[in-house]
Amino acid sequence: MSLNGLPRGGNVRSESSTLDFTIAGGDLKRILAQCADKVHVEEGVDEMAPPAEEAAILFAHGGDDEARSVLEHALEGTINADARFNLWQMLLDLMRLTGQRERFEALSLGFATEFERSPPAWRDLSSPSARVSNEPKVQTINLSGHLGGQAAAQFAQLIQIAMRAGALRIDLARLSGVDDAGAELLLRAVRGLRRAKVRLSLGGAIHLVNLLSGLVTSGKRANQSLWLLLLEVLQYTDQQDRFEELAVDYAMTFEESPPSWEPPLAVTASQTGAEPLATAARTYVLEGEIIGPNTDTLRKITGFAADKTMVEVDCSRLRRMDFVSAGMLFNIISQLHNQGRLIVLTGVNSMVAALMQVMGLHQVARIELHS
């Protein structure tokens, strides 16, 4: 097992990760004109208000201010209650996607007054590269190969680096295996840094979760360190349900109380950049901004779905898609739908969901909005 990123001579280097959110598009009026001939929504079948369609396409191609203007103007003249609710959802999500908290909170009051219900809670969904931060970039340590007990010295150095810097990112995506002794080393390091209030990010956490899941067996009292590491790493993902299920299995297997769900004090996205794309055992993850030529991410859905009758695509970290990518996604999902597979797109923000409906994706997949 090797640890790449450890400095020689004991000096800590500060390395930054960057994100490139490139918007494919150009003149927005030209884009809308091109899209107008390609978009068709059947009358009476989940029909969407024209302003919602226009705002979705504008946002898809980077026209955040133009999309907001369209939505606000539409709310001034729209009477239909269902259409107004959809427009409000899109506008509030747009504020979250562009990091405009004060405007979001002002609009939330109007939403609550009109619909007599609580508005969605504030969440900053803006791209990490758009957030202003004075936090220093932190170093990334890459773990690779088979993680075993022979790495004790490297882990001691890793802990020293994290304690000095107050933050660290550990990339687990290149690990090919882990044994009980190696699991104990990583578990102690992660728990120790957590207790010391060190901000820690685990890149490729889902990869390690999948690796460990194949090494533990419910009811078999063996490899306890692997169980505990799996429970620990799951807390660095958004899979609380999966954590709770495993915690129950752990309690029944080892007849002792499992750890409780306590999301860690993580390194901020502005310090590390985005997590790499990862596929969990049950879901395929789309995240960030899928723009123009970035199509490999979408093509891999077909391979992921090969042995599944129900295909769940987690879109909770997907900020934006452009028109071309949404069209490619429609083609891929249509083929899977025609094969008799059920496709569920979960955690979709309202702006992307509107574009998906413009493209007709709601006719071949189930689209579930995020909270």
Automatic annotation (TrEMBL):
**What InterPro entries does this protein map onto?**
MlaB-like_STAS, MlaB_ABC_Transporter, STAS_dom, STAS_dom_sf
Domain STAS: where? 128-211, 286-371
Q: Which domain of life is it from?
A: Bacteria
Instruction: Name the SUPFAM superfamilies on file.
Output: SpoIIaa-like
Protein name, entry field: STAS domain-containing protein
Which residues does UniProt assign to the signal peptide?
none
This protein's species is Zoogloea oryzae
Residue ranges spanning the membrane: these are none
Q: What is the lineage of its organism?
A: Bacteria, Pseudomonadati, Pseudomonadota, Betaproteobacteria, Rhodocyclales
